[in-house]
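Entry 14. Ran structure prediction on the chain below.
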Amino acid sequence: MNKLELISTLKERTNLTKSEAAEIVKIFFDSLSESFIKGERVEIRGFCSFHIKEYQSYTGRNPKTGEKVTIPPKRLPFFKCGKELKERVDY
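Output, structure tokens:
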């Protein structure tokens, strides 16, 4: 499922217009992004949780040339599946 399919499903299951459903989905994802930027943990009970993992700088290699390259530190969102979602998928 992609974002457009999510909007269509929301529109079909509610009495919303397509633009209203799109706005709700946009607000949801914007809120997630803002929380990630702040470094906050996001938890949707029964579905999943996200937290930010911080990675230190390290020395890597360019696969084409074999040259050493310094990889800068980075912060990435990490997804953890919830217990209820695991049970629904694994039935």
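Residues 1-38 form one domain. Will compare against last week's run tomorrow.
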